[in-house]
Amino acid sequence: MSARVLDGVAIAAEIKEEVGREVRSLAEAGAVPGLTVVLVGSDPASEIYVRSKVKSSAELGIASNLITLGVDTSQAELLGILQQLNEDDAVDGILVQLPLPRHIDTRAILEAVDPLKDVDGFHPVNVGRLTIGQESLVPCTPAGVMQVLQRSGIAVRGRDCVMVGRSDIVGKPMSTLLLNAGATVAVCHKETRDLREYTRRAEILVVATGVPGLITPDMVAEGAVLIDVGINRLDRREDVERLFPGNAAKLAAFDKRGSVLVGDFAPQSYLRSSAYTPVPGGVGALTIAMLMHNTVKAARMRRSLPTDVLEFA
Length: 313
Ligand SMILES: NC(=O)C1=CN([C@@H]2O[C@H](COP(=O)(O)OP(=O)(O)OC[C@H]3O[C@@H](n4cnc5c(N)ncnc54)[C@H](OP(=O)(O)O)[C@@H]3O)[C@@H](O)[C@H]2O)C=CC1
Ligand SMILES: Nc1nc(=O)c2c([nH]1)NC[C@@H]1CN(c3ccc(C(=O)N[C@@H](CCC(=O)O)C(=O)O)cc3)C=[N+]21
Ligand SMILES: [Mg+2]
Prior knowledge:
Elements: E1 4-5, H1 8-28, E2 34-40, H2 44-60, E3 63-69, H3 75-87, E4 93-96, H4 106-111, H5 124-131, H6 140-151, E5 160-164, H7 171-180, E6 184-188, H8 195-199, E7 204-207, E8 225-228, E9 232-234, H9 237-243, H10 248-257, E10 260-262, E11 275-276, H11 283-302
Parallel strand pairs: 1-11, 2-3, 2-4, 5-6, 5-7, 7-8, 8-11
Antiparallel strand pairs: 9-10
Helix pairs in contact: 1-11, 2-11, 6-7, 6-11
This protein binds NADPH dihydro-nicotinamide-adenine-dinucleotide phosphate (NDP), 5,10-Methenyltetrahydrofolate and magnesium ion.
């Protein structure tokens, strides 16, 4: 079977186009949506992501603001900044980039963001609302996966879905969205005794573990849809050779940049699928598009404007 590549970049571009139209109509009504990103410390990966969020905002006409804080910022200082942002009427969306330095209690910070401005969808109020199927701000990566499925004509209702990973930011909200959409969902993790027993049964297999090449062809049902959320940077040539035997393009990419990005699926498993999301260029591209979507949604919610015009998450 020849597998279809689900082009995350193209789908993200389509969504950004739609969100851009919403931004312009809000701006005409005098309500330019505003997004503030808070970055504590200087993790290089976080700096890249944050820059790309600010750049996308600018492209769409969202007023973005980046607050960069030193790695020694105290939890109390960060809470004080969040309180100011919660009260600032020009700020529709607040995102605190994760991971935070170890001396800061991540949960305490996520709970300090006004749920109406919580564009990550990580506040317990939004988690709860999602669970009971009420309108909420939905975590960007899982919401992006639902967009990929929907816009690629892949039905979810009644299908057997397996989610590998149970984190609060990807695995759990992803399994909730699939369940709410009518799928039968199994959620697997490190303590799952026989992972293959589950993955082999999946018609739609979503994997977010951060383990490069975890899912091998023997773990995939013929014709399954594979959604690879994992983003792993390989910086040793022998790891690239092991995961991509005979793949000249990946090796060339490695030799050019000194590292490559890979997902959680061994590439040979794609051959058994009917469709799959590549890494890079798959789910990752959707995350930022959905952040832009959530910022506009937050702007509309806070002004009691209808959100159904853009309700696709
Ligand atoms: N595309 C995007 O936009 C995004 C991509 N990511 C990427 O997705 C991946 C996951 O992120 P995140 O959810 O934050 O990661 P976490 O580390 O928080 O969670 C990983 C999950 O995978 C499970 N897991 C790990 N190893 C195995 C294994 N060998 N077998 C079965 N389950 C396993 C863990 O199980 P247990 O709970 O038992 O420990 C855990 O539930 C990462 O690669 C990350 O970079 C993340 C966010 C956005
Ligand atoms: N509060 C918070 N919210 C987040 O949403 C959040 C976070 N913290 N911390 C880190 C993770 C990771 N994340 C990604 C964003 C964009 C890409 C992305 O654009 N990926 C592209 C390009 C990747 C590249 O070339 O480097 C791709 O996969 O094709 C990936 C991953 C958001 N996260
Ligand atoms: Mg912590």
